[in-house]
Amino acid sequence: MNRALPDRLRQRLDALAPLWRDGLPAMARGLAVGLLAVTLNPVLFALSVVSLALIPAAGLGFAAFPIVTSVVRWRANLSRRLAARSGVPIPVPYRPVPARAVYGTWERFRQVVSDPATWLDFAWLVPGAIAGTVCGLLAACLPLYGVEGMLGIAILLSASIDWYGYGIFWPIDNPVEALLTIPMGVLFLVVGLAGARWLTWIEATFTSYFLRPTPSSVLAQQVRHLTVTRADAVDTQAAELRRIERDLHDGAQARLVSLSMNIGMAEELLRRDPEAAAALLAEARQSSGLALADLRGLVRGIHPPVLAERGLDGAVRALALTVPLHIAVDVDLPARPPAPIESAAYFAVAEALTNVAKHSGASTAWVRLTHHDGRLAIQIGDNGRGGANAEAGGGLRGIERRLAAFDGIMSVSSPPGGPTVVTMELPCALSSPRTSPSSGTA
């Protein structure tokens, strides 16, 4: 019996663990939401109204309104981040600002005014202040109110006035009534922590109705994205065609021309100098072998045969063997991706490993390929010096452009001193089953 009680108590505490784990962060978020709503929203609404009113008056609003809008967007982005933590992700809907549209210019004013998200933010300030204040502060105050009762503050206060006064829940006339505030405090704490998650979720959902992108803005973003990725795909294709043409001209074509000339000279020398003709034919045979090797290398650069034969798993392992580093390869793909996705992923891995070998100073690296939620995920890491940056151009920027043609994304984590981790994702559905092993070290 003595052991049963602690076991039961432990089970009860374990059952309450999710309440504390989720309720306390929700309570903190509610406090942040409530304080931001009650302090910043009214001020920003007033500043927005004043800056709009100043537009006819000497044109001061042309410069003031974009500045106020930038502060409003900063405030709205804070709410988006808090909403995402409450389980309601809200994409950022703002149109990109051209480089020439600096503050104080007509371009900046026109860009801000023509963006529908500007007016949705403005429309959200007052309702957001009300919803944030009510839901946020309620999510924070209910648990705190329960803590006050649990600590028996009402008992202490009542004891100083001869058990007569007002407790936290009702007027207290005697010690028995004061003691009842403790179980009431426990009840308020539990209900408050459980309700904090719902209150913050309700506030985040309400906020999303104003701050999420409109259908027209989503369509406009998709059009801009497709325009950029199409231009990148066209540029990449043109660069690839130029590379193929250059390789053919400088390699196989030159060798084939030399082969044709040697065969022609051998024909002329065949009767009067058979030995010289035989030497030319031997040279022609050697040139034909070199031309064939050039063509094979060119084909591998377009679509490696190992990729077609062994799939992405085997192709990445074969690729890792060509890099002068210890590379651990871990592939967990239940089936093969479509051929275009396989090719893009293969060349992205190849470019990333080339960067590792040339620039990282690493002694070891690793490659991991997985598929989940309809996305092919690729992670490439090394223990090098770090400092890699896709914004600087070069190989990583080329990878990003290659993936963008398939709606893929790439992120780089490379602090000074390392390690460097490049993460890529490509939306795809797997098709044919694989035949190669799933993990190992290259």
Brief rundown of the structure:
The protein has helices at about 5-55, 60-85, 105-115, 115-150, 155-160, 175-180, 180-210, 215-270, 275-300, 305-320, 340-360, 395-405; strands at about 165, 170, 325-330, 365-370, 375-380, 410-415, 420-425, 440. The protein is of the alpha+beta class and about 450 residues long.
Number of strands: 8
Which class of secondary structure composition applies to the elements? Answer: alpha+beta
Widest β-sheet, arrangement of strands: 6-7-5-4-3-8
Task: Kindly give the count of domains.
Answer: 3
- The proportion of strand residues reads 5-15%
Number of helices: 12
Give the biggest beta sheet: 6 strands, mixed
Helical content stands at 55-70%
Shape: elongated
Mean pLDDT: 76
Please write the string of helix (H) and strand (E) elements. Answer: HHHHHEEHHHHHEHEEHEEE
Span between termini = 59 Å
Instruction: Calculate Rg over CA atoms.
Output: 34 Å
Unreliably modeled segments: 160-169, 434-441
